[in-house]
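Note to self: the last two entries modelled the partners one at a time, which told us nothing about the interface. This time every component goes in together.
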Amino acid sequence: MMSQNSKKHTEACRFCWMCRHLCPVGLTTGREVNTPRAKALLLSMVDRGEKFDKDIAQAMYECVLCGSCTNDCVTGFDPTIFIREARTMAAVEDLLPKAVEEIITNISNTGNIYGVQKPKYTGTAAKAEVLLYIGEVAACKQPTLVTAIMSLLKKADIPFTVLEEEPASATFLGDLIGFVEEVRIQAKDCANAINTSGAKTVVVLDSYEATTMKQRYPEWNCTINADVVTATSFIAGLIEEGKLVPKKITGEVTYHDDSRLARDLDEHEPVRNIIKAMGLNLQEMFLNRRMAKCCGSELLKAYAPELAALTAEGRWEDVNRTTADTLVVVSPQVMNVMGAKVPSAKQIKDLYVLLDQAC
Amino acid sequence: MNIIVCIKLVPSVMNLTMDQEYVMQRDRVVQVINPADEAALEAALRLKGNGSVTVITMGKPSGDDELRSLLARGVDRAVLITDKAFAGADTYATARTLSVAVNSLGNNLEDFDLILCGRRAIDGETGQVPPELAILLKLPFVTNITKINFNQGKIVCSRRLEEGIEELELGTPAILSLCEYSYPLRLATILGLQKARRMQIITLSREMLGLKKEECGLKGSPTRVRRITGQPQGIRNVTIAKNIDEGIARLSELIAEVPL
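The predicted structure of the combined assembly is written out below.
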């Protein structure tokens, strides 16, 4: 049962094949089924009576929902719309891949994709105008990053709070089963928790979650009363205001624009300004800003680790084409995916950790 | 409460096109639920309690999918009134068809406590169907509703007026038409979608409703559209401020002119 909107998008392909050259999954696997165009054709066949089976469902999960195909489609159509709906269909028809089912179980048991007790962090005050929303990936997998950003806020003299029991933002559940009421309820709980804190600004560490809060929550009538800002733009603002003054570091780095900052939030310059403020020489990758090639995501890594390793490898190839020896990242998800297998001549550094050392 | 919700599928404003005669192109256009009707449906789902919500729409057979998506959101029964004879219906012919359909759904009108509609559709923008339906069904009617509660057998509702909000109380059965966005419609649940796969959509044709050909569609419509013309773009007498300070200064002057 797909919406008319989805059907329109599945029928929209002009067969120009440009998405084939952009899809980070298709590029690394070389499989036709991994192109956005193929996914549209599969669903078009389903609309014409073909059975929506396990293989088609599986194909819908071999996608990072990075939006690279959407960004460059000449007809302006959006494969992420029908892929999300097809994932809903997979859940409805009991055709979810086993690994996806396990993650959904983890989310329902613990609120996070890992199925673990989320570590607790404390801010500088129980109540403050600034709330730091850490997110599950940073909280569970990147404690160094959390420590660094908290240290930066303290150095800038910004009192901040964190939610004692930080609820899930609905980002991952929405990517797993599409935009259904279960996802909206999770989003609403998160918005309520943020509103109860009384904060005026929510600084969101993971750009994936910032995108959900800024773009999806209003669509789902989940109002956050505070301003939602990405951690990158907030920190760049602190440097601009002179509240953080980094020492100059020498070196040559390259930077990977993650899909959400690059395409959904159109936020390209704050990170570059932070890099510039530290005096680092930035070597841009061939595909940067809106055209950035996705390296995979933590969610993909959770249910299809081999695929995530391939997408990360694909992005490392782009890094290798630059003269920089260090890759700078700002997303906890990128750090986890790209950091899993770093080529011997390269290193990966988190921007907040670097900045914290420089301030 | 047992509630009927009348909904209309309208072309999505994101891809609306008209031909040279300014006639809306409905083919190959994505149809969505009219925003005000979404509010009526959400209000019904919140009010129903142990009762039921029945959705009625008049349109093409292709509306089946959209109705199924409503079953997945908690609607108990979906009725699609579809027949070539209904094509070209004006608001009166539409209201007449809907009134006959409402009467055919229960043994009598008392089977329903409430009929909810959107106050207007974004394609036609007449806002005439709900009051016409109320007259044909001989039921009390209130429009521009932003809030509804059911308390001790009475409907308590808020109606938006130009000067403010009016609180009204009325008995059942009644017809209310809701303002768009007053009740944002919930999404479908996975369980709801699974249930909706097995549910039947009730289809009603002209013959099933016992309507004569001259009572419905274009033949049954007293309205005749003689001509539709484009609205020429107006020329606004505006001055663009040179900078933000000038804009603020001018705005302050204008605010000062407003009598307190």
